Amino acid sequence: MKFSFEVVKTDPSGARRGRLTTPLGAIQTPVFMPVGTQATVKGLTQEVLEELGAEIILANTYHLYLRPGHELVRKLGGLHRFMSWPHAILTDSGGYQVFSLSDLRKMTDEGVRFRSHLDGSEHLLTPEKAAEIQLALGSDIAMVLDECIETPAPRDKAEAALTRTTEWARRARIYFQECAQRNGNLSQWQFGIVQGATFADLRRESARQLLDLDFPGYAVGGLAVGEPHESTCEMAAEVTALLPKDRPRYLMGVGRPDELADYVALGIDMMDCVLPTRAARHACLYTSEGRVLIKNARFAQDQRPIDPQCTCSVCRRYSRAYLRHLFAAGEITAAILATHHNVHFYLDIMRQIREATEFGKLVNFSSDMRTRYARGPA
């Protein structure tokens, strides 16, 4: 089985119901990818992820390069075997992680020279190196190295980052294609990343330049880094209007539960975010009626499940009072149960979004979710 992507249904809103096929199986789109930064989704085993229905997860090039090292992972049979995950994996390039190390890195046209946050050792991450690492990891989808900048950004800085991102994408594409010529067809797809900050004309220009490089899929990067939700949607819309209809579109690093349908309505097929797992570790639970801050004293005697409408095993078995107790006691089980519920909730939202798209009812679903979350946390 090889790579392919097909759109099987389109909603009046512009949402796409599709199927992304990889050598490890088909992924129903639109899809939310749980984030497994260091080859693990924090708080969940791979067995649980399968039980929850995850078909693809995300891992981090920067972190796996520093520890345990891509060559060790290659030696041990690749990332899938290393982490015992027989399903699809997308690896990001490490660009965002390096961007966040503002005091430990220096950006040049060659690449990014940075110091490890682990031991202070110095490294140079180039577009070619990022591609090499991801080929060694053996992920199914690999992202090119891009320059991610803060938002808001001055126009001249956004223009410079766009130019550098395109040049890096060109170099990464050449390296990848040369590896394919030497080693035969590679079991990996390489995606380009559109940049341009919050300047609509720069977003369009970035997309046009990347289209010339003929990637099998395209991502919209550099958003969800502090700008308003409306700006994220506006920039994503500018890009998706130009991207090929027969290739997957990935909006990186989004979003809140009530925002997911908005992105899908823009023609986005893939999303990821640390929010469901990170919020769970901080006692924030997502439910069909909005957010629940489970540490609140009002839940001390609440015998109801986290979400009475939820079918996950945590909601079927445990009470709000019990979860509140676990967090108050500092028990690790608290984060495990909360993460299980939140990831289930996100994956179930995507299931409902796919269903709504099939029946042409995504606008109604989106409006309903927005209303529920407008009330604020309980």
Taking Cα atoms only, what radius of gyration do you get, to the nearest Å?
Answer: 20 Å
Count of β-strands: 16
Instruction: Determine the N-to-C terminus distance.
Output: 47 Å
Average pLDDT rating: 96
Portion in beta strands: 15-25%
CATH homologous superfamily heading of the largest domain: Queuine tRNA-ribosyltransferase-like
Main β-sheet: number of strands, strand sense, barrel status? 8 strands, parallel
Indicate the structural class.
alpha/beta
User: What number of structural domains do the residues give?
Assistant: 2
Overall form: globular
Low-pLDDT ranges:
none
Helix content: 40-55%
CATH architecture of the largest domain: Alpha-Beta Barrel
Please give the order of strands in the largest beta sheet. 4-14-13-12-11-10-6-5
